[in-house]
Amino acid sequence: MLRGIKIWTPKAFTLEPYITSLNLVCNYTSAKSATNSQQLPRLPVPKLDDTLRKFLKSVQPFLNDEESVKTSGLIKQFNSNMGVGPKLQELLVQHATKHQNWLEEWWINTAYLEYRDPVVVFSSPGLVYPIQKFRNESDQLEYAAKTLLAALEYKSMIDKDEIPVEMMGKNPLDMCQYKKIFGTCRIPHEKRDKLSYNDSKYVTVIHNNHLFHLDLWGSDGKKLSQQQIIEALKTIKKLSCNPNNEGVGILSSENRDTWAKAYELLSKEAVNRESLLDIERSLAVLCLDRAVGVHDARSDWQRRTLAAAQTIHGGGAASNGANRWFDKTIQFIVGEDGVTGLTYEHSPAEGQPIAVMTDFIINSINKGSSKAESSASPKNPIKLKFKISDEVSQMIEAAKTNLDKLVDDLELNCFKYDKYGKNFIKSHKFSPDSYLQMAMQYAFYRLHQTPGAHYESAATRMFAGGRTETIRSCSPESIEFAKAMLDTKADPKLKMQTMSKAISAHKDYTVQALQGLGVDRHLLGLKLIAKENGIEVPELYSDAGYVRSAHMRISTSQVACKSDGFMCYAPLVADGYATCYNPRDLDINFATAAFRRHPDTGCEPYRRALEQSLQDMHDLLLLNTKSKL
Question: What CATH architecture is 16-112+412-628?
Answer without folding.
Answer: 2-Layer Sandwich (3.30)
